[in-house]
Design a protein that fits this description.
Elements lengths: L1 H5 L5 E5 L5 E3 L2 E3 L4 E5 L18 E6 L5 E7 L16 H18 L3 E2 L2 E2 L1 E8 L4 E9 H11 L5 E6 L5 E6 L6 H13 L6
Parallel strand pairs: 6-9
Antiparallel strand pairs: 1-4, 2-3, 5-6, 7-8, 9-10, 11-12
Helix pairs in contact: 2-3
C-alpha cells in the first residue's frame, strides 16, 4: 500500500482486456488486449494513448505433479521485438508480464507445495502458433518477487480455457509497472527469464 502512495505522478499501467472467444483448430481462442493508460508523459509510453496487443490463446493444464502447472500462450505477432507502446518496452516484454500475472493468479499465490517450490511452465508461441518462442519455467518465488516489486493493477475479467475444455471468466490483476525507473527495472528483470529449448 505504501509503495503505491509513494509512486510518482508518472504512471504506466499494463492492463488486460478481453475480446470474444472463437474456436481455432479445436482449441478455444481468446483475444485479450493490453491497454496502456498514462497519466503523465513517460519515455516508454505515449501520453493519453491506448494500445492493444492481441493474444490468440491462453490455456491451462494440470499435471500429476502438484508442484507443476502447464500453460499455453499464443500471440499473432510475427515480430515480438517491436515496441509495444512506442518506447523501450517490446511486445515480448509485455507478453512476459502477462505470463507472470497469469502465473500469480492461477498458481503462485502459495509458492510452495509441501517444501517444494511450485513452477508454472508456459509454452509461448508467436506468429499464430508457428514460431516457438520457447518454454518458460517460471518459479513461483520469481513470480511473487515480480508481483511484490511492481504491484498489481485493476482487476480485469479474462476468459481462459481449462484442462477439461471448459472456458471460464477469471478476474486477473496484471502487473502495475509505473514510471521510467520501474520500466527499466522490469526490462532488466525480463532478461533474467531465459526460455528453455
Amino acid at each position: 500500500m505504501l509503495k503505491k502512495i509513494a509512486k510518482t505522478i508518472t504512471s504506466v499501467t499494463i492492463a488486460f482486456g478481453i475480446a470474444p472467444l472463437t474456436s481455432a483448430i479445436g482449441f478455444w481462442t481468446i483475444s485479450p488486449d493490453i491497454a496502456l493508460a498514462s497519466v503523465a508523459q513517460a519515455k516508454n509510453a505515449k501520453s493519453n494513448s491506448t494500445t492493444t496487443i492481441p493474444i490468440n490463446t491462453i490455456r491451462l493444464e494440470d499435471t500429476l505433479d502438484a508442484s507443476v502447472r502447464l500453460g499455453y500462450f499464443e500471440v499473432p505477432d510475427r515480430n515480438t521485438t517491436v515496441s509495444a507502446f512506442g518506447g523501450q518496452m517490446r511486445r515480448y516484454d509485455v507478453h512476459v508480464a502477462r505470463l507472470i500475472a497469469l502465473s500469480h493468479h492461477f498458481f503462485c499465490t502459495q509458492p510452495y507445495s509441501g517444501e517444494i517450490e511450485k513452477v508454472m511452465e508456459w509454452e509461448y508461441r508467436a506468429n499464430n502458433g508457428r514460431t516457438n518462442m520457447g518454454n518458460f519455467a517460471l518459479g513461483c518465488l520469481q513470480v511473487e518477487q515480480a508481483v511484490t516489486t511492481y504491484g498489481l493493477g485493476k482487476v480485469v475479467p479474462m476468459k481462459v480455457q481449462l484442462q477439461n475444455g471448459s472456458t471460464k471468466v477469471f478476474n486477473v490483476r496484471p502487473l502495475d509497472i509505473q514510471g521510467d525507473s520501474e520500466t527499466d527495472s522490469f526490462l532488466k528483470f525480463v532478461q533474467t527469464i531465459k526460455p528453455q529449448s
